[in-house]
Write a structure and sequence with these properties.
About 60% of the residues lie in helices and about 0% in strands. The radius of gyration is 17 Å and the shape is elongated. It has two domains: about 30 residues; about 55 residues, 434 Repressor (Amino-terminal Domain) (Orthogonal Bundle), CATH 1.10.260. It has six helices and no strands.
């Protein structure tokens, strides 16, 4: 699984960009590219129901406000907190940003 995430450093970002270009041109394999992803990128953590709810409580916002802040639907936030679904992709990245930097980082 390829994880698109924040580079560990500027040098890692440059190295990853070069590897990505080499992969696109067929010089390095998919397996080797996965190794570069693992070395150069910081993965986004997964958020389960308890983590989403704890984050929302930490931010002291309602489900609707959290949903609006990350451009998701309130029903999605309810499903995440109920354990029916897990946030993925952009939603997971935004939850991680909120967790690390607070609501002010995206508003």
């Amino acid at each position: 699984m390829t994880v698109k995430a924040k580079p560990r450093s500027r040098m890692a970002a440059e190295m990853h960009e070069l590897a990505s270009d080499l992969h696109k041109s067929g010089v390095i394999s998919k397996r080797r590219m996965a190794e570069y992803d693992e070395l150069c990128l910081v993965p986004v953590p997964e958020y389960d129901a308890a983590a989403v709810k704890a984050l929302r409580k930490k931010l002291n916002v309602s489900q609707a406000v959290l949903a609006d802040a990350i451009n998701a639907s309130a029903s999605s936030v309810r499903a995440w907190e109920g354990g029916d679904k897990k946030p993925t992709g952009t939603a997971a990245k935004l939850l991680n940003l909120l967790d690390r930097k607070g609501l002010e980082a995206i508003l």
